[in-house]
């Protein structure tokens, strides 16, 4: 019971201390417009306004809330340039709505606050929100531009692929025409050199010389084979334009649809 009474007595004491601290903090956070700063010389206040000009020298930087810098200014002295470099001041605060904390003093008949650290001058909540929105807008715009460039690259790749396919098709057509032309020339040369022997109509043909048989190779045209070993005893046609020429004694030559020898049976190797 005694402990409870002590506890009840201590609680109001700490509550009063907390309220005192809060009240002191609220008193220190007196926010005034920069135009009223001259009325609060000697007081610790928070001055709010928009920075309309930044002028720096080797000794100090003046952040003016008036374009002429003849009224209230926030001053950053040279010893604070390490934490508040002049180039950062221009980039971070010029044209922005800020709050400056400190004691208002009078210098050359105009009020000012000396800023010692970045915590003494901050962007307002609305200004920070606006900067965040601008950053998000710029990021979204950059992403949209990147997607647009990517779509352009994809379209160009599709065009290149289409052109390559067309070029390949033209090349294959040209190769086929060239092979047909070569076959026609070879056939013309064979017909001019020696006319083919008359068809045997199934009667046995004289056996070709052994050396002639060795000269028959895969890839030869029908005209070339006929010139070397003569006409076949009979011709057997297969599907797809394939044919087989039989020369007796188990010798056969198979030709593909283009008329090229693809398989030799019974012919001695070269």
Number of helices: 5
For this entry, what is the oligomeric state of its chains? Answer: single chain
**Which class of secondary structure composition applies to the elements?**
alpha+beta
Mean pLDDT across all residues, rounded?
81
> Major beta sheet, specifics?
5 strands, mixed
Structure characterization notes:
This protein is α+β, with helices and mostly antiparallel strands and 270 residues long. It has three domains: 27-123, OB fold (Dihydrolipoamide Acetyltransferase, E2P) (Beta Barrel), CATH 2.40.50.140; 127-193; 196-265, Beta-lactamase Inhibitory Protein, Chain:B, domain 1. Helix content is 44%, strand content 23%. It is built from five helices and 13 strands. The chain is rod-shaped and about 125 Å long. 16% of the residues are buried.
Which key phrases capture this entry?
23% strand; Beta-lactamase Inhibitory Protein, Chain:B, domain 1; rod-shaped; 4-stranded mixed beta sheet; alpha+beta; 5-stranded mixed beta sheet; OB fold (Dihydrolipoamide Acetyltransferase, E2P); 270 residues; single chain; 13 strands
Summarize the structure.
The chain has 3 domains: 27-123, OB fold (Dihydrolipoamide Acetyltransferase, E2P), CATH 2.40.50; 127-193; 196-265, Beta-lactamase Inhibitory Protein, Chain:B, domain 1 (2-Layer Sandwich), CATH 3.30.1450. Helix content is 44%, strand content 23%. The strands form 3 sheets. Strands 3-4-5-8-7 form a 5-stranded mixed beta sheet, with helices on one face. Strands 1-2-6-9 form a 4-stranded mixed beta sheet. A 4-stranded antiparallel beta sheet has the order 10-11-12-13, with no helix packed on it.
């Amino acid at each position: 019971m005694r402990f409870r009474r002590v506890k009840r007595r201590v609680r109001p004491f700490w509550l009063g201390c907390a309220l005192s601290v809060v009240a002191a903090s609220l008193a220190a956070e007196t926010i005034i417009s920069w135009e009223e700063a001259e009325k609060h010389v000697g007081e610790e206040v928070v001055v709010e306004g928009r920075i309309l000009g930044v002028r720096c020298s080797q000794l100090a930087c003046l952040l003016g809330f008036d374009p002429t810098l003849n009224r209230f200014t926030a001053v950053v002295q040279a010893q604070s340039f390490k934490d508040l470099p002049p180039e950062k001041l221009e980039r971070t605060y010029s044209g922005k709505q800020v709050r400056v904390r400190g004691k208002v003093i009078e210098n050359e008949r105009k009020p000012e606050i000396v800023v010692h650290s970045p915590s003494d001058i901050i962007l307002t909540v609305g200004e920070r929100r606006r900067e965040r929105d601008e950053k998000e807008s710029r990021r979204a715009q950059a992403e949209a531009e990147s997607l647009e460039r990517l779509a352009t690259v994809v379209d160009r790749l599709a065009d290149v692929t289409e052109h390559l396919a067309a070029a390949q098709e033209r090349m294959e057509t040209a190769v086929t025409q060239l092979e047909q032309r070569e076959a026609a020339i070879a056939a013309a040369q064979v017909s001019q050199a020696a006319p083919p022997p008359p068809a045997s109509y199934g009667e046995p043909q004289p056996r070709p010389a052994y050396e002639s048989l060795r000269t028959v190779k895969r890839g030869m045209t029908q005209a070339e084979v006929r010139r070397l070993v003569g006409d076949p005893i009979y011709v057997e046609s297969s599907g797809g334009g394939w044919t087989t020429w039989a020369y007796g004694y188990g010798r056969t030559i198979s030709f593909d649809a283009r008329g090229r020898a693809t398989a030799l049976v019974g012919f001695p190797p070269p």
